[in-house]
Amino acid sequence: MNPFFFGNSKAPLYGVYHQSDQPSAKHGVVLCAAFGQEYMRSHRAMRQLATMLSRVGVPVLRFDYRGTGDSAGDIEETTAQEWLEDLNLAIDELKDTANLQSVSVIGLRLGCLVATHVCKSRADITKLTLWDPIVSGTDYIAELTSEIKSQPQNKRSNFIAPDGTLHYNGFAINQELQNSLNALNLLNSYPENVPEVVQIISHNNERFTSLQKAWNEYSSFTCHKIDAPGDWNYVDDNGGILLPQPIIQGIVNQYKMREAA
Amino acid sequence: MRERVLRIGKPQALTAIASIPKTNVAEDKATIIVNSGVMHHIGTCRMSVKIARKLALSGHLSLRFDFSGIGDSTPRSGTQSFTESASSEIREVMDYLEKSKGIKKFTLIGLCSGADAIYESALNDSRVTDLCQIDPYCYRTPRWKFNYWLSRITSPSHWLLFMKYRTGLMKGSSNTDIGEDNIELPTYIRDFPPREEISTGLNKLFERDMRLLALFTNGQPKHYNYEKQFEESMPDVDFKGLFSTTYYPDCTHIIAEPDQQALIIEKIAGWAGATETVTQAVNNAPPLEEAATA
Predict the structure, then answer these.
(1) Which of A164, B41, B50, B164 could be bridged to B169 by S-S, CB 3.0 to 4.6 A?
(2) pTM of the complete model
């Protein structure tokens, strides 16, 4: 595990490189994190996924988008378009660091939106895995808005400011970020250039089903349900975090088989 | 301000991020921010990042790091309890900064379990000169009891919740449906030591002129519910004017409220700045003999 800053030295991104046990690894993976409380609650799961993948011979880079985690900037000054640039940078960084020709990308929640749109625009992505994906930016904003309205008891932390900024569980999404997220939609953005696209879901819901239906016509697409229910956005007063072992193991097994093949 | 990743210790290094000011107002001093629970080093709602950057912009070298096994620090083998390992890892980070940067004085900041860990460190290491605890150990007073019961009796929302529980309308938490295999809870069990133990410890700390800022959210309503409670619960402590406290009744334990985040960051930055004002005043003052003859 090697944490480092990369990218523009004036606004660097924080990343953690997990070197593979195999010195001549052919494929690498970039992990695309979730956002807000979901990011906090999934950090350990992403670390574990990265560690396990590196042990089966896959070098991994996980990183923070600008305005999040340890990367430079404030969320109030960030757009989803910049997150797409950040992922492009991260992919190039991993290719350089591990001397790879191509990489795979695994997205979690909001990270799936970013991952899909970037993968669609590149020719060096061999596999895209979407874990409990947020299906569209519009959907995500609507979901948060609905959550905010259903929790009047938490009105000091969860509210919509007069300027339209959504405040939810300690993180803010201003109007500009909302607008840029609204432009991202998986339903009409199938990455046909990616040879293998996998949706992994921990439970059933309408949104996951709608994506599955929209993408089922593509032969490169598969969907797997691995039971591990849990609310990514829940705030646990005891500081509990989600660590859905069956899903982590399931993703690792897929890459293990791929490396063996 | 710029930031650097540091890897401290071997063979399993601790991961730290240093926020380095353009100009350091106190070359021999640094601030260290520790984890709370199993949350990684960016802190609850990214507060550790915001505090570290704010302090660095005001000229204070600040460092946030992960205890072993948490966040981006690899687990270490051993049989130490969290209290023991946290204390020894904070010491390790201070040793590193002392050796590499000549830093001899440290401000420690921690929330909840982090507040407990930095208290232990302060007791055992005289290099700790300033301590900022958020939701530290605290003890009930008669006024706490009065406030607590009064609020329960007079609060319509309390009665509403009570009725919902009684009638089964209250939904369980979202974690209740999650199998044990899919969730990780902090292993550290927070037991408040006897009050006398803490008052003895505080007297020792103030005896060596350590400054303490204690911030309280409403996250411990069964233990704390008014501004001066901490001082009132410690009548046998000589605070020597080194203690300051603020109670944030509108702030949750994870500091999710944006206005409260801003208040707490400003409070800590102001308090840290006050140290430098005092230090600079002392450093800039003429030697005692000169002052006496001036």
Answers:
(1) B164
(2) 0.90
